[in-house]
Amino acid sequence: MEQIKQIKQYADKLRLTKLRNNADKMVHQAQIDSPSYLEYTHELLYQEILQRRKNDYERRLKMARLPKSHDLDQYDFNFANGITRPQLKELRELLWMEQNYNVILMGPSGTGKTFLAAGLIYQAITSGYKAYFMTMEDIINTIKMKEMVSSALATYNRLLKAHLIAIDDIMLMPIKKHEAVAFFNLINQLHEQCSIIITTNKSPKQWAENLDDEVLTSALLDRILYRCEVIKLSGSSYRMENRQTIFKEEKS
């Protein structure tokens, strides 16, 4: 039908994705239901809004770069001590983000730091925020490459506009002096503009050893700890307790 074809063309020019992809179905349903002009117009616009919300959510979720496991409903309190159910519930409500509070998750490997950080990023995304999950290595590589590679610059600019950023395994490995300065500049720009979640197996006092600069470390911690909740996790390693094997158990 020529009119349906034109509707799809108009919808495409106006970026009305839902109408462009479902014009036949929507017109057919309207012929059955016989809504008023007002009802039909309202439904068209409503469906388009829903589609745009869905597209925006999927785009933000993809850009977040979340690890595979990030469902906080599956958090196992038996393998980590340091956070209670009420505290996790309060963190998931994200009210702390309104005051640009930071969160440091500190503890040995396998106690759920990364899982908690990724879960809170996912919670923020589902709540409509721009949130990203990156390792310290990702951050440093982005900083180093942003002047040479357009994709790295785009990533860096997205970070500057974020509501929440998780930096995983901060200070795990030593970094060069110029990289440390560039990292500080990023944190300084984000200070009081964006909330930051940090996972680390080292206390902030040990960061100076990695940065090899006590003054720079002090300035960095000053900005991160100004409004910050430090959560110290302990317990056995979830990964080691649930270690997988490629070998089948021998039958007796």
Automatic annotation (TrEMBL):
Q: Name one GO biological process term.
A: DNA replication
The residues covered by the AAA+ ATPase domain are: 99-232
Instruction: Give the InterPro entries listed for this entry.
Output: AAA+_ATPase (IPR003593), DNAC/IstB-like (IPR028350), IstB (IPR047661), IstB_ATP-bd (IPR002611), P-loop_NTPase (IPR027417)
Please give the Gene3D superfamilies that the UniProt record associates with this protein: P-loop containing nucleotide triphosphate hydrolases
Instruction: State the Gene Ontology terms under molecular function.
Output: ATP binding
Q: What is this protein called?
A: Transposase/IS protein
Which chain positions lie within coiled-coil regions? none
Q: Which UniProt keywords apply?
A: ATP-binding, Nucleotide-binding
Q: Which organism is it from?
A: Salinivirga cyanobacteriivorans
The text of the family note is:
Belongs to the IS21/IS1162 putative ATP-binding protein family.
- Do you know which SUPFAM superfamilies this protein is assigned to? P-loop containing nucleoside triphosphate hydrolases
